[in-house]
Amino acid sequence: MKRIYYFILVTSVLGISCIKKSDFAFNNLKIDNWTPDWAFPLLNAQLTLKNLVKSNNVVTEDSTGLYSLHYDGKLFSAKASDYIFIPNQSYSSGPISLHTPLSIPSFTGTVSDSFSNHFSYTDTSGAQLEHIKIKAGTLNFHLASTYRQNISLQLSFPNIINTSGSALNINANISYPSSTSDVSIDLSNYTIDLTNGNTTRNYMAYKINYVINGSGQSINSSTDSLSAAIDLTNIKYSFIDGTLGHYSIPIPHDTINVAVFNNTLTAQIYLKNPKLHLAFANSLGLGVSAQFDSLYGLTNHGVYVNMNISPISVAGATSIGSTDTSNYTVDSTNSTIQNIFNPAPNQVIYVGHIDINPGGGMPYNFITDQSTISLSADAELPAWFKIIEFSLQDTLKMSLPKDTNILQKAEFKMLVNNAFPVYASIQLYFADSAYNILDSLITPTNNLIPQAPVNSSGVVNGSTLATSDFIYDHDRYHIMASKVRYGFIRGNLKSSGTNSVQIHSSDNINIKLGFRFMLNVSTSL
Amino acid sequence: MKKLLIFLCCCLPITSFCQDSYTLKFLPQLQESQWFNASNQTDAKVSVGLPVFSSVSMYIYNTGFSYHDVFHRVDNNTMGVDLGKLIDKLDSKNFLAFGASVSLFSFNYASHGFSAGLSINDKLDFQFAYPNDFFKLLWYGNGHYIGQTLNIGNFGINATYYREYALHLSKRFGNLTIGLSPKMLFGKTNINSKTTSIQLYTDPSYYQLTATANMNVQMSGIPDSNDKKDGYFGADYIMNNKNKGYAIDLGAKYEITPKLSLSAGINDLGYINWTSNIHNYTAGPAAFTFDGFHAESFFQGNTDIVSSQNLTDSLKKLIKFAENNSSYATTLPYNFFTTVNYNTKHNLFGLQLSGTRFNDQIIYAGTLCYQLKLGNHFTGALSYTAKSTSTFNVGGAVILQFLNMQWYVATDNWWAAVTPLDSKNMNLRMGMNLVFGKNIKEEDKEEHFDGASKKDKFW
Description:
heterodimer; A: mainly beta; Jelly Rolls; 3 domains; six-stranded antiparallel β-sheet; 3 helices; B: mainly beta; elongated; disordered N terminus
């Protein structure tokens, strides 16, 4: 029996001693047969048209629930003072002689006289101005004398008034033997009344009073005279009124990018009753006429689609500081806009001009240095259309992650329940550096977004469910991963039925996406 | 961390289970044997157990796996892990249990077919339940279980530390010996995960994930910050007698012949009522389905829809605990047994069939035991136990008795010491009793059975 217990003792000790260090060789741990398979939902979205468009776009809904998309933007804005100028004016009094004949060989006395006349404002626009409030500008006065006497002169403009109500008076003196005198006056804050007491326009009266003090030299009124030259230069106005004449303010050449069609392969869409709402905001106190000299859509394949619009009359502001808004809607009744999406352009190009006082006559106008005219546009695209053909393709630079053997299989499971009156097929192609297609992501060839039923009016009256599984296994990935340089995303969109379809607020698409992947993480740590 | 892992793995088989001792029931000469079979009576007239020295026991038990079920040697420098093989071996619910018992005092008097004793023991039992489905999910992923429900969260912790005051009474009536051990229990700490359920369902449609949670965890004697402010700990904890409980062991033995006896019993039939420092936490029943990120506003530039915040918030709501302080009761993990013993002069052959309630399961076991007594000083035993969760357990015991000292060591799975990395469980009980005199048994005075000499009696 002792042997038995010796045996027990010995085997116990030996057993424990049989634990080897290598049983705990965790520095080199090998994980075998670990191929987890994970599946989880990625996406569950119930989308209406409002959800699908970017938030900076406005979606409106009419009483029937029909959606319209609105793309708005400011096309043009011009400040009147950038186009309507007060040109420099140059006036001359001509020779001014004494009214009373005087001829003395050696004149030492004093004689006084005066002279009144007016200048006329002129410019090339044919303006007939009543008032000019001057913000900045200079009056240069040049006095010349053939008298061999001393001259004291005052030039007065009774209708050029400063903010204190005082008329503009300019004094000049000539001391013989000098024969000229020059004076410059800052005209800031002066107002020129060109109406001569509301009787006319462009009329600038002046008066010259002068005194001749004898210098002992001879004087002869039949040969001696004075002359005044006046220049108005760099006049900047804060307000002018009257009839401003004819001007043309250009609407510069510009391009509107229609981004959604940037990657269009082909697009033929018949859009029912698209509209272009033009809004002119005019704080000029005058009526204008806007004219698009050129307005057309241009596809990325170089196809022009012209849209002709008649000249648009825009009313002016009725009071200083107010803005008059004129709205004008371009639709199929007054333009060829109906064709603008056939084919769909990815650029809309325009150039034009605005005519001031296009009708002639002598209307009363006013502007300030802050007066502007601007044009904004709102393209209203009713979600009522028929897609004859619409294909998009985008090319992406792509390099796939290095094959690590970890990812054995990836599967996307997509459930699309479509209650939109459009359906689509979508594919992602993988291409090499020479754009040769190597493989594609989506195996099913049926429509990813299935066709929903519509009634005779093109309104959805049901939904269609499509289930798609995209399975990509390691072997397929291994073959192409290192070669892929580009990806082509290609989509074809069509409208349900044979007629135009309408997208209403109740239309929606429910997209559910699940992702399942199998890994092989058997490895040594 | 690795060292800790190694240590834990090595500990798996070294230390049995729910304070049960299969081999010890076949060692009536120890007063500790009466703690597991109430009808047993000691050989000594008086047995005294000194604090700590008389009986210390530990056990660890893992129903799920051994070290080598997890790690296998690929070569001398490489360890391999194949959790798939492990998972195949796991039940739907598995348990890791460990515990210890220390005797604070024990006394027993036995004479003329009557035995009376007292024992005071501190006992700790810790059971951790873990679901197979949790490991299935980690290893295989939910993709393997589409359309199925995985019970990934029915983890459970049932831990109890209590003090047991037990009377051990046994009386022979002719061929029949009746024993009973009434016990008074004072609970110190308890964690009782009454309900812990988290289920995960993966819908085959597009893999929507639905989680359901229902949790109810009861705790007593674990002070929170408020309890600590109130100064609850230390002596208050050790001497806490507010969590009272009662239990009883019952046993009976019938001697069919002088050599052949049949006994049966049930132990730890009782409960503890937990009333002090209660912190109960409940969550659910609640359900949450993640059906993907809702991207309705994605095209408006709202990228928050793919943030994990919403998901996190939902999960927080799913497992949002509410606390209450209601008292509760837990039952002890009772066990029942029946044994057949055949005695010869120096040998005993025994067969035991037993069952132990473990969590909400019954663990069945069958034990064969051979005992050899050499003189008055040495007794050895060898046992084999097959349990419903571990079929190969070779144990044994050694008792050395001299100078009124009775040294003993007993285990139900000595074989684990030979192959520790392939074992799931082991227990060990050891100690020293002071023994005085000799129990004068009824049969020593009277011959009840023809042809059977008292000298043939082992006890």
